[in-house]
Write a structure and sequence with these properties.
This protein is mainly α. It has helices spanning 12-43, 55-75, 78-98, 105-136. It has one domain (15-44, 55-136). The mean pLDDT is 91.
Length: 140
């Protein structure tokens, strides 16, 4: 079997702007998703005489997975971006299911779009971050 030669790593001048842009996009989509959840639960869900949890408690429960990864993403941790890729699937599924509602379909589409954007940007940030670290370590 032929031995594969490893692909060379991209230059730092190519990686650094992509790292910065992917981090900005992932943080913006995380903030947008959190804002969408808050607005959705405050203004677009009717709870006539609903016993039990109020809107504030439901918002706290819905935002909890995002808050778990928010600090690590703000600090720029690549491993936290990996966890964000895993946790964001909850919001993707919720957005797809909500998009079948004729009244609130646009909210479901928005949640699906933001979750796909967050997943893609966090994944690319992780990929480029590990390549950047390998390049800084002297790997060719």
């Amino acid at each position: 079997m032929a031995k594969r030669t490893p692909k060379p790593l991209p230059e730092l001048s190519w990686l650094e702007p992509r790292l910065r842009i992917s981090r900005i996009i992932s943080l913006a989509s995380l903030a947008g998703l959190a804002a969408l959840i808050i607005v959705w639960n405050l203004f677009f869900i009717e709870r006539p005489n609903a016993p039990g949890l109020g809107a504030a408690a439901i918002i706290c429960i819905a935002l909890f997975p995002l808050l778990i990864v928010a600090l690590g993403m703000i600090l720029g941790s690549a491993k936290t971006h990996i966890w964000a890729c895993i946790l964001i699937n909850i919001y993707f599924v919720h957005g797809v299911v909500a998009s079948f509602s004729p009244v609130q379909a646009w909210l479901g589409y928005s949640e699906t779009f933001l979750s796909v954007l967050l997943f893609s940007s966090a994944f690319m940030h992780t990929l480029w971050s590990f390549k950047h670290k390998r390049k800084l370590a002297g790997e060719v």
